[in-house]
Design goal:
178 residues; mainly alpha; extended; disordered N terminus; signal; DUF2059; DUF2059 domain-containing protein
Length: 178
């Protein structure tokens, strides 16, 4: 089960911020996807410089730290282990693999940037991020992202609890206990 859960968790966590709303919004139509830009060495170099500037390596570390916390919870449930034992298992068995592959994650993100933006786009983004507003965005985006994720989590918990209460008898009839 854990093998399937971790990639799904990684994909979920990599999404970024979650919008906060009082009521669920209708699912928007998917945005048109721009055709992929052929990756050139210059494009990859510009993407690497941009991602370094905006702190993708630090974001990769933060993502892995978030995943570590989730893996500890999964190990606790999967093996009925206390938190300290689950933490030891995650840190000794699983985390070395994640840490050893962190550069791979960063390189994949660089490739994402390189395939979605032209060399001129990447240069323009780097120029923007060198402005005072760009620097402010770099400095505040982690806090804004965290606040958005917290808002999304709070929203999700609220909707989940209300939905459980609303459908309690139907869920119990299907063999679930809350």
């Amino acid at each position: 089960m854990m093998r399937r859960t971790i990639p799904a968790l990684a994909a979920f966590l990599a999404v970024g911020t979650v919008a906060h709303a009082q009521t669920p919004a209708p699912t928007p139509a998917p945005a048109p996807v721009a055709p992929a830009v052929p990756v050139t060495e210059e494009g990859r170099k510009e993407a690497a410089a941009l991602t370094e500037m905006i702190g993708v390596n630090k974001q990769s570390q933060q993502l892995i730290a978030i995943m570590r916390g989730q893996m500890i919870q999964l190990v606790m449930r999967a093996g009925n282990k206390p938190q300290d034992e689950a933490t030891k298992i995650v840190d000794e068995v699983l985390m070395p693999d994640f840490m050893a592959q962190q550069n791979d994650l960063t390189n994949q993100i660089i490739d994402v940037w390189a395939t979605n933006f032209t060399v001129d786009d990447l240069k323009g983004l780097r120029a923007f991020y060198n402005t005072p507003l760009g620097q402010k965005l770099i400095a505040t985006l982690p806090a804004v992202t965290q606040q958005g994720m917290n808002a999304g989590q709070t929203w999700g918990q609220r909707i989940y609890q209300a939905s459980i209460q609303k459908h309690k008898s139907e869920l119990e009839a299907r063999g679930l206990k809350f």
